[in-house]
Specification:
Layout: H1 3-12, H2 20-27, H3 31-45, E1 49-52, E2 56-59, H4 68-73, H5 77-82, E3 84-91, H6 94-102, E4 110-117, E5 135-144, H7 154-169, E6 174-176, E7 180-183, E8 186-197, E9 203-212, H8 235-256, H9 262-268, E10 275-280, E11 286-293, E12 299-303, E13 306-310, E14 315-319
Parallel strand pairs: 3-4
Antiparallel strand pairs: 1-2, 4-5, 5-9, 6-7, 7-8, 8-9, 10-11, 10-14, 11-12, 12-13
Helix pairs in contact: 1-3, 2-3, 7-8, 7-9
């Protein structure tokens, strides 16, 4: 993807018509380069650009760009003191970028958001993809005084923060163990946490979050977006809301662990007291009823053999029909 393509896209993302000549003059390039850039926007990003003789080009689905100043304007005093914000147009993976920084003295509270990830990752090695401008993808580097052995339940704590923020925005979300956020039973957001450090502390965690704000287009699973709940798809406002809640929850988690958040997480659980099936990378699936989560975030399931506890790892949860 050429630099001209992103520059042209910035002109078109307001949803109005712009002539090729005006864009070329603004960018200091030829109209041929503008045409090539528009073609790249369609062929490489999958976005639709209308071309009308005498009017120029118009993006079919306009969107607002992420902006550090706009995000910072929506932060609470505590969050503003906590975070260092950066926005990239393109990167391979925000998690990969911050994991590299975690081992090289990267700042506590460093946040990297990105318009386009070329190698975004989800849990269990899955890819996370979204149409440009439709999603919110960011990672956060957080340094804990507690060690790796005490970070169990962190993904659930992050889920609580996301649940608080999105419900305050008007989206009636639910949480799926251990790290998904659902809207009307469909995936709205995912959490990917990678950690480094010592077993007894200190430790660093890179918390990656991918959230569908507007309709993401065709993907390989049932998904939802904030727009489906009638929430205005303002990504800067949404990012500010998420960071405000994360600042509070992560500070509380570092001090007290997951236990004080356990009941709040369970109240938001999509599969509370429901029949579920747990599948594993190896071995037979387990059927039972989800009856709670432990202080360390482990899922408690009542099975025919009694209550069993499942820890976060190579396990996938589904509601059993």
């Amino acid at each position: 993807m050429s630099e001209h393509a992103f520059a042209v896209l910035r002109h078109l993302s307001d949803g109005r018509f712009h002539s090729g000549e005006d864009i070329a003059q603004a960018l200091g390039c030829s109209r041929t380069l503008v045409w090539q850039a528009v073609h790249a926007v369609e062929s490489e990003l999958g976005l639709t650009v209308f071309s009308v003789r005498g009017q120029g080009y118009r993006l079919a689905q306009p969107f607002g760009w992420l902006d550090v100043a706009a995000v910072r304007a929506g932060l609470s005093e505590r969050a503003a003191e906590t975070y260092t914000l950066a926005v990239a147009e393109r990167t391979d993976s925000t998690n990969s970028q911050l994991m590299a920084r975690a081992g090289n003295g990267g700042l506590h509270g460093l946040v990297l958001a990105c318009e386009l990830q070329t190698a975004g990752r989800g849990r269990l090695g899955r890819r996370w993809q979204a149409r440009l401008g439709s999603g919110l993808t960011f990672s956060l580097l957080w340094r804990f005084e507690r060690g790796l052995a005490e970070l169990a339940g962190l993904s659930l704590a992050v889920g609580v923060a996301i649940g608080r923020a999105l419900r305050a925005l008007g989206a009636p979300v639910a949480l799926k163990w251990p790290n998904d956020v659902l809207l009307d039973g469909r995936k709205l957001a995912g959490i990917l946490i990678e950690v480094s450090g010592d077993a007894l502390g200190p430790a660093a965690a890179v918390i990656g979050i991918g959230l569908n704000v507007a309709d993401p287009g065709e993907v390989d699973q049932p998904v939802a977006a904030l727009a489906h709940a009638g929430v205005e798809p303002d990504r800067n406002r949404t990012l500010s809301a998420l960071l405000n809640e994360l600042a509070q929850v992560l500070a509380d988690f570092d001090r007290d662990g997951f236990a004080p958040l356990r009941e709040e997480w369970w109240a938001l659980c999509a599969h509370r007291d429901a029949a579920v099936r747990l599948s594993f990378s190896h071995g037979e699936p387990v059927d039972g009823m989800a009856i709670g989560v432990a202080d360390n975030g482990a899922l408690q399931v009542k099975t025919a053999q009694g209550v069993r506890t499942f820890h976060i790892g190579e396990v996938s949860l589904r509601e059993r029909q």
